[in-house]
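Okay, is this right?
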Amino acid sequence: MIHKILLLGAGRVGKAITFDLTTDFDLTVADRDTTSLKKLAEKYGAKTIVSDLKNANTLSKLVAGFDLIIGAVPGNMGFETAQTVLKAGKDYIDISFFEEDAFRLKELALKQGVMMITDAGVAPGLDNLLLGYHNDRMKVSSFKCLVGGLPRHPEAPFNYKAPFSPIDVIAEYTRPARFVKAGKVIEKPALTDSELFTLKKKITLEAFLTDGLRTLLDTMPHIPDMVEKTLRYPGHRELMQCYEAAGFFSEEPVNIDGVSIRPVDLTTRLFFPMWQYADGEEEFTVMQVLIEGNESGRQVRYTYDIFDRFDKMSGMSSMARTTGF
């Protein structure tokens, strides 16, 4: 039985998870941001702990008294956080979308006798569950997922705001994208292979490659065609390609008048205020999943469309709700 749950991270998605779980479970939220914790305590009655989640020793002691741990930390903390939690012998559910291969933690989880559910968000996450459902019922030949979270009223020059950490968004734009074509795993630069996608709401978006298949490359190797693409307003992709080509996303330090700095650190620091949603600002999350194959001797296609808006009643973003819930 799960009695006590510890949530690591009190950001936007952490807020949605807190809202969802506080009523039915003994939930405690841990973060170093006292302001965010205070808001969750006041609004939802959540128990809170101020803690440096980057410190492995501190984190190991912190998780000891809980039955289940949920990770909602930034992607650059995700792998090490998961490793620490598993070493402590705790079951773990994670939404952090870290860069490292989650299967590197498999032996550790087996040794400790614990479970880890990784990439438990919208995509990857919900789309994996949809594919798994149909994979049990048919011979799947093709899987395609288009997904994005966007402001309802885009503003130049970016026509975008980040529902989560800007550094995680930039990682999506720079991490090589893998997809499967005719049974072979192919790798291309992110932001390539663009195509237009029109919502039923008459909004035209642009889809491009990102590395969103993740664990499906290992768990669904029998499916000959699989691809995941990110959705943005037209023009954003080309602008990001310009920044990347100019070196603004580079992690290699440059020396400026005796000061060493990584360009990506400066870029994210400058982007953050411009990409941050204002309180009450409307945004939406959209996803389309296409699954094709042979079911009971006939060719079929299943199409799933999700369109979720900012919730004015709770003041909660659609990306936070669709990921957190």
About this structure: The longest strand covers residues 139-151. The chain has eleven helices and 16 strands. Residues 251 and 265 are 8 Å apart (CA to CA).
